[in-house]
């Protein structure tokens, strides 16, 4: 070879990112190494998990008869608390607003949730930190949370509520307690929680006065006595062992069981917790329904499912699997204006981007929702935000009705597992429905 001609450079392969040590993981190692503290954030699990997207409806054809969308009725109402309560809650739609604490959310955000939910005939829920005038005043149906922390707990407020929800756990952090960092403990929040201003607060992960289902039975009876047996009592559990937790909640006397899956949002907790503890919502629904069926209590004790519900299809799928209603947290905040790209410049200044902002615990939310900052809060107009939530709830309901009619159902509660198939073997096994195009349900013999 001519010594003046260079050998061609060997072609180089593309730089390859490790699937195990991906860019996010590397950044988290660097962050941990630089600070020595674990990451705290809001929102739910962000990694890809089996979810309602892995299910499809079959729709009617020759063997099933669909309903006509413009002429034939498809009911959406639901009654919660029919087991013992003298005054069950009657809702026009099967979508409720999940418990989100005042403290994590601003007063205007609480008011907007109340306005939006009431316009659609559904309920809102308090949270850690007690009942505010904003939400009681604007919610026609308000569920009062009874939490391990007891922050803001007031028997008079219990009597002012329309139902009581005993919170055992949350899907984002089953087995964990709440967190509200000092930045958000404003004078008002501090007063309501009887806490010092500006100091980080970590609430208890378990109730101080009961340890198991037998004690819970006594606690529920106390709550019934305080409220003259009028109000439905819900028990909310984070999805971990939903079969047993549902059965034990029923045994303890619940009127309604709320099962919150691991995609469920939180105001703040350790990221390692959010991403690694609990089971996906999809995996939890069938187990909870099975527990109710085995006890002969399905539809007698109502089931509310939450954790990553985003649209009418999710609602319809949860109902088809046997839930009576769903609850939404994150999606309701997005409808109010959370993570709106119109604040992009401010998200960038916070080191994030619209759609990924989850440092809700820091209280610097440009949209004025997850903050106690007086100036930021002013950005949220509760009337406009409430209308946006009502619109969104209306769309979700119309979507669920559209699907139900296509499956030939005159009420969304008539949707059933038989209307569903799964796209993946995992989803088929978790939801106990056949893999699409087959009659095979994993774990069951037969099928083709
Ligand atoms: C900002 C925020 C605050 C929350 N605060 C509470 C709370 O005080 N008590 C509670 O039981 N759950 C709380 N949750 C969880 C919700 O009640 C609900 O379980 C969850 O948001 C449902 O999942 P989703 O956000 O995917 O809809 C909170 C969630 C968010 C997003």
From TrEMBL:
Gene3D superfamilies: Aldolase class I. Residues 84-337, 361-409 form the Glutamate synthase domain. One of its GO terms (biological process) is glutamate biosynthetic process. Keywords: Oxidoreductase. The keyword Membrane does not apply. GO terms for molecular function: glutamate synthase activity. Residues 116-126 have a biased composition (Low complexity). Residues 113-134 are annotated as: Disordered. CDD domains: GltS_FMN. InterPro entries: Aldolase_TIM, GltB, GltB_archl_type, Glu_synthdom. Pfam families: Glu_synthase (PF01645). Belongs to the glutamate synthase family. This is FMN-binding glutamate synthase family protein. It comes from Methylopila turkensis.
């Amino acid at each position: 070879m001519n010594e003046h001609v260079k050998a061609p450079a060997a072609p180089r392969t593309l730089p390859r990112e490790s699937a195990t040590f991906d860019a996010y993981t590397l950044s988290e190692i660097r962050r941990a190494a630089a600070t020595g503290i674990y990451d705290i954030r809001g929102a739910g699990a962000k990694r890809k998990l089996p979810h309602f997207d892995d299910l499809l409806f079959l729709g009617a054809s020759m063997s099933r008869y669909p309903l006509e969308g413009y002429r034939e009725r498809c009911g959406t109402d639901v009654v919660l608390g029919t087991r013992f309560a003298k005054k069950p809650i009657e809702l026009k739609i099967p979508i409720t607003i999940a418990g989100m604490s005042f403290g994590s959310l601003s007063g205007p955000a609480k008011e907007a949730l109340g306005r939006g939910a009431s316009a659609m005939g559904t309920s809102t829920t308090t949270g850690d930190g007690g009942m505010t005038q904003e939400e009681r005043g604007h919610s026609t149906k308000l569920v009062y949370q009874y939490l391990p922390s007891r922050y803001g707990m007031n028997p008079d407020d219990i009597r002012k509520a329309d139902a009581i929800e005993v919170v055992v756990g949350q899907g984002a952090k089953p087995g964990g307690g709440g967190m509200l960092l000092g930045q958000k403990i404003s004078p008002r929040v501090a007063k309501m929680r009887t806490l010092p201003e500006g100091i980080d607060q970590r609430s208890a992960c378990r109730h101080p006065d009961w340890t198991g289902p037998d004690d819970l039975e006594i606690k529920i009876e106390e709550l019934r006595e305080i409220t003259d047996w009028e109000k439905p009592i819900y028990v909310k559990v984070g999805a971990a062992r939903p079969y047993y937790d549902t059965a034990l909640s029923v045994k303890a006397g619940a009127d309604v069981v709320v099962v919150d899956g691991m995609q469920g949002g939180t105001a703040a907790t350790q990221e390692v917790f959010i991403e690694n503890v609990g089971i996906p919502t999809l995996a939890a629904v069938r187990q909870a329904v099975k527990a109710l069926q085995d006890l002969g209590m399905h539809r007698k004790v109502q089931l509310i499912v939450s954790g990553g519900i985003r649209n009418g299809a999710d609602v319809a799928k949860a109902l088809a699997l046997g839930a009576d209603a769903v609850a939404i947290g994150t999606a309701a905040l997005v409808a109010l204006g959370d993570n709106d790209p119109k604040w992009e410049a401010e998200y960038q200044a916070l080191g994030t981007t619209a759609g990924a902002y989850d440092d809700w615990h820091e209280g610097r939310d440009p949209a004025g929702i997850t903050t106690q900052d007086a100036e930021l809060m002013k950005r949220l107009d509760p009337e406009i935000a409430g209308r946006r939530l009502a619109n969104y709830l209306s769309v979700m309901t119309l979507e669920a009705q559209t699907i139900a009619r296509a499956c030939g159902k005159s009420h969304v509660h008539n949707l059933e597992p038989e209307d569903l198939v799964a796209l993946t073997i995992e989803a088929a096994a978790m939801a106990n429905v056949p893999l699409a195009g087959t009659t095979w349900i994993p774990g069951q013999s037969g099928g083709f």
